[in-house]
Amino acid sequence: MSYIIGIDGGGTKTHCLLTNLDGSVRHECYGGASHFLVQGIEPVSEILYKLINDCIKAVSINQDEIKIVLLGTTGAGRRTDAERLEQGFAEYLTKQKFKVNLFRVESDARIALEGAFSGKPGSILITGTGSIMFGKDAHGSIHRVGGLGRYLGDEGSGYVIGKKGLAAVSKEFDGRGSKTLISVLIKEKFNILSQDILITEVYRNNFDIAKVAPLVIEAAEKNDKLAMKIIEDETDELLLHVSAMQKKLNEKNLAVSFIGGIITHKNIYSDTLRKKIEKKLTNVVVKDAENSPAMGAVLMAKQILKI
User: Fold this and answer.
1) Which sign does the torsion angle of CA 136, 138, 141, 147 carry?
2) How many CB atoms lie under 10 A from the CB of residue 178?
3) What is the average per-residue pLDDT within 254-280?
4) Taken in order 28, 72, 263, 128, is the CA torsion positive or negative?
5) What is the pLDDT of residues 64-98, one digit of tens each?
6) Within 13 Å of residue 270, how many CA atoms lie on the same side as its CB?
7) Going edge to edge, which strands form the sheet with 66-73?
8) How many CB atoms are closer than 10 A to CB 80?
């Protein structure tokens, strides 16, 4: 028998699937975080090695029956970084006297796109700490919109929403802006009671700005005007992402799948974005992902094996 292992590596957990060559799942398991740019290649290699061995033991197979292991992970968007992990894992396996027929690293966004539409054309809008959009056209070409990071982009993201929320709070503290419920929620959640504390937290204590986004959304749901303005502006930015992708893919009807907590969970932000798409982009349909990113890794592996 021959098998495929598809792995979705993230900043909090790693999801692994062992499948037959036709994609039917034989075993599923989980491991710790595998962001190799943060944790390092060797710790991540250890996690991957344990997951592969878990699959081997669970189904009682030989290691040479695994035709390919494909990992989609955070931090592998640039090919040079992906190759670093491929090489590092190969060296780790050599030390363990263990062999994998083929090991390939792709970005987490790429496997999410493949899984969302089972390899068919479509697009994914990822809105977490940052924001980016990927799409696959009818010819199999991959297109990208956004993803320029916090200095040049990340419009509509948790970081930008949080930054705008903190800016509104700082203006209230300073007497330059209106009162906002965001300030009250910031005080309750993070004990930020003054301008000085805010400055210290942001510039000295590496405050996680994206964590303010849920508070801005909560304030908007309670009709806070400044928070609602942020919601309006940032959903407009995401609407521009979708519109640009529609033009790039040149599809009469564009399917979009949302990824990331602030737009997948039901709240005023995701509801506003969906309503704007429905009203202004009538040929765009928001759809739930058909498969998990880990299954997307399996599908990509099948493409490499040409099966």
Assistant:
1) negative
2) 10
3) 93
4) positive
5) 999 999 999 877 778 898 999 999 999 999 999 99
6) 17
7) 25-31, 14-20, 3-9, 66-73, 103-107
8) 7
Q: Give residue-wise pLDDT tens across range 96-143.
A: 999 889 999 998 889 999 999 998 899 999 888 888 899 999 898 999
Tell me how crowded residue 40 is: count the other CB atoms within 10 A of its CB. 12
Calculate the CA 68 to chain-centre distance.
Answer: 24
Q: What is the pLDDT of residues 235-262, one digit of tens each?
A: 999 999 999 999 999 888 899 999 888 8
Nearest to 242 by CA among 254, 251, 232: 254
Written as six digits, the tokens of 258 are: 């949302």
Q: In angstroms, rounded to a whole number, what is the distance separating the alpha carbons of residues 7 and 147? A: 23
CA–CA separation, 214 and 68 (whole Å): 40
Asked whether residue 153 carries a pLDDT value surpassing 90, the answer given is: no
Domain spans in the chain, listed from the N-terminal domain onward: 3-116+292-305, 121-288
Q: Which CATH architecture has domain 121-288?
A: 2-Layer Sandwich (3.30)
The answer to whether domain 3-116+292-305 and domain 121-288 are alike in fold is yes
Closest C-alpha among 106, 110, 16 to residue 66: 16
Residues 137, 120: Cα–Cα separation, whole Å: 8
- Segment 11-23 shows an average pLDDT of 91
Residues 6+ apart with CB under 8 A from 190: 201, 207
DSSP 13: -
Do 110 and 300 contact (CB within 8 A), yes or no?
yes
State if pTM tops 0.85.
no
Superfamily covering domain 3-116+292-305? ATPase, nucleotide binding domain (3.30.420.40)
